Amino acid sequence: MAFNFQDFLPQGDGMLPRWILTVAVMAIFNTIQNFATTKLTRRIYNVLPNAVTPLQARTFGVWTLMSAVVRVYAAYNIHDKSIYDMTLLSFLIAFGHFSSEILIFRTATLSAAVVSPVIVSSELLSLSTLSAFHS
Fold first, then answer.
1. Measured distance CA(83)–CA(65) in Å, rounded
2. Cβ contacts of 103 within 8 Å, gap of 6 or more
3. How many angstroms separate the CA atoms of 5 and 135, rounded?
4. Where are the domains of the chain?
């Protein structure tokens, strides 16, 4: 019995389930990073990097892990409307967070470290557009 990586990938229609799984896996690595060091998180909140404490980083890590769990479930259950809607909301919350840190609280600027989370969190546009198809 040979190992086939494809067997572990979501079998849903199109690329959306695989994209959501990719985002979830990246979030798991981000969670680990937040528990290990504040270095990369300080690059996101680059206006006030000293406001990023180990406690805040761990809290951010737990929040990121919870989002990752929801997204893994969505990747493998893309047609379950409840899970799909929760995933859509997780992206909306993340987008709101990063947008407010840039535009309202001004703890971050549009640097290379911030662009990635903003792009990923804007996935909600694709999810909401495809909502009728997947739910």
1. 16
2. none
3. 27
4. 14-134
